Amino acid sequence: MYKDTPIIFELATKSKASRYIRPLDVPKPDFSSWFGKAYRAEEPNIPDVDEISVVRHYTNLSNKNYHVEIGTYPLGSCTMKYNPKVNEDLAALSGFAATHPLQPDQTVQGNLELLYHLEQLLNDVTGMDAYTFQPAAGAQGELAGVLLIKAYHEDHGNTKRNVMIIPDAAHGTNPATAAMVGYKVREVKSNSKGMVDLAELEKALGDDVAGLMLTNPNTLGIYEENIEKITKMVHDAGGLCYYDGANINAILMHARPGDMGFDCVHMNVHKSFSTPHGGGGPGAGPVGCKAILEPYLPRPVVRKKEESYYLDYDRPKTYGKVRSFVGSFGVLVKTYAYILRNGAEGLHQAAEGAVANSTYLRERLKHAYRVPYDTPSMHEFVMTAEWQKEKYDCNTIDIVKRLIDFGFHPPTIYFPLIVPEAMMLEPTETETWRDLDQLANAFLKIAKEAETNPELLKNAPHDTPISRPDETRAAREPILAG
Question: Of residues 67 and 374, which shows the higher confidence score?
Fold first, then answer.
């Protein structure tokens, strides 16, 4: 807990706080004949705090949280872009928000129609043939996609295919997902351009390979220039290709995973299409696939017969479920609204804006911080604090802690693991050039401070209620009282 903010119980008074509200003078009903002992033996431990103090307390706490409506949130691979509030209003419409997943299909025709048309839109965006909306977010989407690959191989008698190939620059969830499904992980090194090394990929392929998990652009923000060759190599070896959609913001309506040769894909629609990522939810991770994998999708799927829509549970080859019902429906409403509002042209422009903003920021910072790859980056890029560490003994932690003093949320750090002292920045298309300049100016000033006053960085941040907590302990033993 912040040292200057009392917890709510410390605000409680011994006397009645809401003194202008008279005590309840209605006698308590006696339910003992119904339920036995109807009342608590002791009163609940609820702090006696007046309304204005409660409102001020929690408003004060909320102001200590950084969020995308306060300022730039440059988390790489996390797409913390601004969320149009109209999408929240649409998701809150009673026809959507007040329905129950156990209602009969005929009573939720509007909801099913939305999902049916959203599936067609996502097929158009990704080049897939069918979708499931069950997964709650990206990691569960990965699980659902890799389970499709496993079900396909088992259905075709390819039980000895038990290896998943994953590049060394992959998201950490990729190898974890493959292991959860029961696959062994075979890593492929990156080349000097930050892309998959084709020679290393060739060595990794064999008759035990079930597939490849790949992000494109990858976690370095670099587009794989040999992507069609990569997927063909995997297919020729009898494997299937899974596309991690975490970075699809960079290529929306410019390129499609299906056209690159991928067999299935997950979409972080809570990042790409409204509902900013983070904060514990809500999320949604629809998974699309080519026709060869469609029979294995989890049940139910939304189908149309004549003029009505229904949930199809009759799927004999399905691998089962990954979540209840059809998934995070409210998030999917916002996804549908976002896509309809932007259209193909708007999504095309959003991708261009994401790449332009990232490129602009990279160009402004590349002389102050080391950029490990000369290859042009797209919606995000990686720079490092290697120069500052070598010359002034200031590392990445020192730099991003100092960034907090300038009013910015730190970027993703020390990832991908193949880059020492990494800082991964993704400004997104919703940031203005004024905001980008302010962020760039802060980084440039910090680079100068590292040179002239390194201790200033080592003791940062200076303007926060707490400075440098034990972050490992904070993650394992969080204090959540407030």
Answer: 374
